[in-house]
Every structure is written in C-alpha cells, then in structure tokens.
Amino acid sequence: MIYIFHGDNQNQSRLAFNLALDQKKDYDILRLDNKEINLDTINGFINSQSLFSNPRLIALTNLFSIPKPILDKLLKIIKSNSNFDIFIWQDKALNITQTKTFPNSINKFFPLDKKIYLCLNNLRPNNLSKFISLYNQVLQKEPFELFLFFVKLNLRKQLITYSKFDQESLKNAYLRTIELDYQSKTGQLSIPKEIALERIFINLMK
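User: That's the sequence. What structure does it adopt?
Assistant: Structure tokens below.
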C-alpha cells in the first residue's frame, strides 16, 4: 500500500508522516529524501532478505522533487513491487496529476489554515493595522517558522512579478526576513522573533 502525506501545512503533514512510521516498529525501514535517492540502494533493499524476516517499508521524502528522468525510473520500481508499503511525504500540496501517479494510494492532505492566506493577502501598503491584527491571530494557531516561510515566499513572488510596494523597500524587507530566519535558527536574536518580524512589516507598510 502507498500512503501519501502532503499539503501546505508542513507541520501537520510531517507530524502525521512521522507518527505513521512510528507505528511500524516491527518493520525494516529504508528512509530516503530527494537528495539521497539512489536506485541501486532501493533495488538492493527490495531484493535483499530481512535478517529477521520482518516486513519492509520504504519512506520517501519529497519524492516529487526528484528530477523527472530519475523519478520515472523510481516510479517503475515502486509500481513493480506492490508488496511493499511505501510512505511518501511532500513538503507542499501535490497537483492533480501528481496525486494520480498512484491512483490506489491513501492520500492524506493537510491544507494550510485559511487565516494565513488572509493575512498574506492583506500585506499591502497602508494596511498595517488590519495586517498586524491578522498576524497576531495567525501566531496563536500556527508555528512561527511556518508563517515566516510563507512570508518569504510571498515577498519573493512580489519581487519577481508585481507589487504595490516600492521595489527597494520590498527587497529590503525580503532580505531582512532571510536574515531573521538565520538569526532565529542560530540563536542570535536579541528580541523575540515575533517582534522582529513585526518590525519588518512596520517598516515595509508604513
């Protein structure tokens, strides 16, 4: 059986993926992410005999981020070994074509809270009061790191497409979010990360 965990809510999808694997304690598990995919390793795992005759399982992270020539070969291997359980976690929502890759799979979709989208849609000039109100609501429900990821994505998209913000101000805000992410992960922030991000918004939207 193939189980797919995906969606914009990476926190919940990853948690569900890990919990599902935790329930397979009696299995021999091969874990690979998209940067470690090696067809020989997978073939070797499939064709080898388990030392204790345990059932086997393959857990793949970001399968659909693999270059297409390798992905096509891997899919052929997976589909020709239907006796194996395959667990797949993708760090975003899969499109319809991707979900149809395994028509008989168990598909577990984890959408992002609509309030995050509402908050990001209110990221525009002269709208600070409403935006900050939504920002605080989001932080009460969602992990800061998840929201910061989508903020950076939103700002980058505005930089390369269209934005109501001044390009220089937008670029500065984007670079500051990258710096904030780094400082937060390395423990270099002198103030709470939530306040640091709020200051970036204030400077951008004033």
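The radius of gyration is 21 Å.
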